[in-house]
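Extended Data, panel c. Modelled sequence:
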Amino acid sequence: MTLAFIPSPAHGVVYLGPIPLRGYAFCIIIGVFVAVWLGNKRWIARGGRSGTVADIAVWAVPFGLVGGRLYHVITDYELYFSEGRDWVDAFKIWEGGLGIWGAIALGAVGAWIGCRRRGIPLPAYADAIAPGIAIAQAIGRWGNWFNQELYGKPTDLPWALKITSSADGRVPGTYHPTFLYESLWCIGVALLVIWADRRFKLGHGRAFALYVAAYCVGRFWIEYMRVDDAHHILGLRLNDWTAMGVFLLAVIYIVISAKIRPGREAIVEPGAGDDDTAEAKGDDADPRDKAEAEDNAEVEAEVKAEDKAAGDDAEPTEAAGDEAADKDEANGEAGAPRAGTRSLPHTPLRWRGAP
């Protein structure tokens, strides 16, 4: 007897007038926004421009959605192309069915196109958005809860998921909430990547590879618990084999990349540093520079005031100085210097040889 369980929603869609709000699509949209927001913060911290992550996501997200749907349709083709099925349902992405493997693969193609247009290295971009992708997956998995799908084996644990729908061969009962397991695992993967990136200064795609490897570890045991129909090879589900293969590729990439390109990229976006320098010269300039400029202005004003005062004091004595100079010339002596000027002490002129 199950004493406690996680209830499933009675409906996966809510109608706002004639507009349907589907829980699955809503979770995907929220996940994308969170991934872009976190990726933008990490990109700026790496030395990139604000908004670049969103610009490239315009390419990556549509490619990722198409890739995820293609992987699901190809690996579960009997759901759409077998007898009694309608192939048009293959296009109804809002009803669920996205394969993360296809989403990452084709999404990387879209990101590569966006990065190439901006002159940005794809590995650096991938490192910045890796934790955000993991969190987006954690949020997106709750779409399976709305659709009452992708649950695990029967259980009576207090956190069991109660399935009430009997559509598509479902049997009502309490099962392992594998959607919840994967959601929590993805959050842990995101935290792991953020910590490792700060601790070891991961670069050249190694933070992204760490995300892939860590996710594959969790996906293997979670996939093993699921009871939905899937293709099996040597007793293992297809996605288990995929997780093992992708895990090995990610680990190999980390090892080789660390030897070939150690450290982290010094510049991730050309020209971003010039923008920072220009801003520093404006309103965000160093306060010490502003203070020095103000002091120089005050000193310059004081000097001008003193010069003006000295000039005004010299004017009344100028005429007297001219008269004295005429008298000196009459006596055969050089004229005295005018007021306000500097000169050597006056000495009478003598002819050479005179006593």
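The first strand starts at residue 5 and ends at 6. This feature is highlighted in the accompanying rendering.
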